[in-house]
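anyone seen this seq b4? input:
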Amino acid sequence: MSVTMALINSIGASHLIPFRLRTLLLRAAGVEMNLRGKVAPGVVIRTKSLTLGKRSTINYQCIIDNRAPVTIGDNVGIGIGVRLITSSHEMDDPTVRAGTSTLAPITIGDGAWLGSGVTVLAGVTIGAGCVIAAGSVVTKDCEAHKLYGGIPAKFMQELATA
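predicted toks r here
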């Protein structure tokens, strides 16, 4: 983690910093975010490889492990304590299961909602208007306008479309 991101994650993540100032600090650090996006206090962002769309919110105590790019569309709701993890490990060596580090991006489509405590793993795309139930672990892509839940997250129902 760079010194700039370390400062953002300590001082900039404080409850004493207003949303608007936190947005400006993140933008100054190189995070690509719309001025209407909101990042709540206590959010940890590992690198500047984050794109946050218009009117999207990352709620309290989220962890964005964005060593690979994380793209969050417009009007997205990210619940409290969500973890977006772009890293994993090769598991081929039986003597070192947490082998060489691997990275893959995460993409979250416009209008999606991730409930509190959701974990999204590396390489996942969540479609537009998709809802992920609280506490779910998303290991595979999720189609647009559908509800997913569970560990691992599975399709639960179709959602209305415009």
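The chain is about 10% helix and 30% strand. The two ends are 41 Å apart (CA to CA). kinda curious what u guys think
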